[in-house]
Amino acid sequence: MRLWKLLGLAGLAGVAATGTVLARNERQRRAYSPDDVRSRLHERHAALAAVAEPDPVPGAELTAGRKHRLARVLRRS
């Protein structure tokens, strides 16, 4: 019986800690002005646009479907 009490208290402590972290993150998120958010989004977009797209692997579109018979044969080899 004592084990269940300890597990229950640990669960309550975990829920309280999670709520605290979420509240802190929400306060930090709301502290940004719209201009700050816009500039950060533009920076992230520019960084992602600078990364080159990898060349597609030949036959990748055939192996994408798990139930496709040819895909299973290609995966075996």
Short description:
It is built from four helices and no strands.
Walk me through the topology.
Layout: H1 2-30, H2 34-50, H3 60-63, H4 69-76
CA gyration radius, whole angstroms: 24 Å
General shape: flat
The amount of helix comes to over 70%
* Number of DSSP strand runs: 0
> Poorly predicted ranges (pLDDT <50, ≥5 residues)?
none
Cα end-to-end separation: 55 Å
The description of the largest β-sheet is: none
Overall average residue pLDDT? 81
Please work out how many helical segments DSSP would assign.
4
Structural class: mainly alpha
Q: Tell me the β content.
A: under 5%
Order of helices and strands: HHHH
What can you see in these coordinates?
- With 77 residues, this protein is mainly alpha-helical.
- It has a domain at 1-51.
- It has 4 helices and no strands.
- The N and C termini lie far apart (55 Å).
Could you name the key traits of this structure?
77 residues, mainly alpha, 0% strand
